[in-house]
Amino acid sequence: MKPPLYKRTLTADLDRWIEDGLVPAKNRNTILASIGADKGNLSAVGILAMLGAIFMALAALTFIGANWGGISKIVRFGLVLALMWTALGVTLYALKRKTMAFAHAFALVAAALFGAGIMLVAQIFNISAHYPNGIFIWALGALAVAIAMPSRPVLLLSAGLTALWMQVSHIGPLGGLNPLIWLLVPLLVTLWAAARRMRAKDSVHIVVLTGIVWAIHILALAQRHEILHDFEATTLFATLMLGVLLWAGIGRAHTVFGAGAGQLWGGSGLLISAFIVQFNFDHTTNIVAASTAWLIGSAILLILIFVALLISRRAGRYRTVETIIPAIGAIMLFGVAPLHGYLDMFGIQVLYGTMFFAGAVLALLKGAQNNQKRLLWLGGIAFATEALYAYFETFKDLLSTSLFFLIGGLLLLFMALIAMRFGKRLGKGEAS
Predict the structure, then answer these.
(1) DSSP 74-91
(2) Chain center to CA of 301
(3) Which is nearest to 217 in space by CA: 158, 176, 157, 258?
(4) How far is CA 228 from CA 130, 235, 289, in A?
(5) Angle at 153 between CA 152 and CA 158, to 5 degrees
(6) Confidence class of residue 241 from pLDDT cuts 50, 70 and 90?
């Protein structure tokens, strides 16, 4: 949604850019006209129409539920179908009249009634089936309606249903991974393609989050069946999130739709999981052999991470230090799991904390350099949480803690001084 007075601000900026020769004058009217071309945003009329249609559908379903015992099965089934097809008919009529607010509203109602129909039919005819499969069919039906219109609200419903289906059906009847859950991969790809076509940013955020939570479920299941150890599952997920963050950055540089969502949630997942890794450090000497699944998974992820760093380096997006820090961070995530239990972990704990601080500072610097508020927030939160962790956990006496923060503060001030002098030299070079 455009902010208030956006067109007025853009008009003033365009006039200034045209005067400075940055924008051709012939493009002025075209650019201003494109502001109103985005018909996907909901207006007040659209919101009210959608809420009104949803209330009408709820009223009909409530009436059916209140008279459930006095209505025959065939009549119930017919009422549900009639309501759904009536909503679709109103949608087609609204499309023909080009009243898009009502078209989106009744398309959403039709998709919702489709799901209600699935549940009611299963109850009417006593169909004994795995109930998450009904949610899966519902998501597919909503996706079909969303693509046919196209409709962002219905696509958002389909994405939400897909996330719900993943959440309730990843475990099979025998406790293992449900084989049907692998259908999530092509479904997420289809949802992303539809979101790209409709420029539906909300849906693509749900798609990315669903994929990340799905990875968590798989790692948790592998941990439950002792395919991975506790420490291995955490480090493997953190390494995966580092890879998502780096490759999403490459995608964003090439204007790939949804790459920003990948950066946001990949960075958030990396921040949380890499921080949680530290709670697994201890001073025990219990030998825990690295599992084969962890070795294979980590090796594949490390290759992908270093390829991403190489591509970013060659494209000029990273300087030497900005390439070295993620590389060492990936090696640290790879190394602490098999070393855990063999060594006294205090030294590795300090080194790991130092790398965490370095990554937070790197995120802050890159966020300031590229004017990316997400990186600034992630870097700031990471730095603050690690500082609190170091204060309460890493150092047990106040003298060691004060020395740690004194050295850290001096290093950061020194880095700020270097960055300031580098910026001044860069500005002089551009001026010359």
Answers:
(1) HHHHHHHHHHHHHHHHHH
(2) 19
(3) 176
(4) 29, 11, 10
(5) 95
(6) very high
Q: Which residues of 10-41 are buried (b: 16+ CB within 10 A; e: fewer)?
A: eeeebeebeeeeebeeeeeeeeeeeeeeeeee
Which of 235, 273, 236, 266 lies closest to 249 in space, CA to CA? 266
pLDDT in tens, 321-361: 667 778 878 887 777 666 655 556 666 777 778 788 888 88
Q: Count of CB atoms within 10 A of residue 292's CB?
A: 10
Cβ atoms of 326 and 301 within 8 Å: the answer is no
d(CA 367, CA 373): 6
Residue of 211 and 347 predicted with greater confidence: 211
3-state secondary structure of 410: helix
CA distance 239 to 301: 7
pLDDT, one tens digit per residue, over 255-292 is: 888 898 998 899 899 889 888 888 777 544 444 566 88
Residue in the structure block whose two tokens are 């201890």: 282
Given a contact cutoff of 8 angstroms between Cβ atoms, the answer to whether 101 and 49 are in contact is yes
Question: What gap in Å lies between CA 12 and CA 1, rounded to an integer?
Answer: 20
Decide if 106 contacts 90 (C-beta within 8 A): yes
Backbone φ and ψ of 205, nearest 5°: -65, -40
Q: Provide the residue ranges of all domains of the chain, joining segments of one domain with +.
A: 228-394
Statement: residue 398 has pLDDT above 60 = no
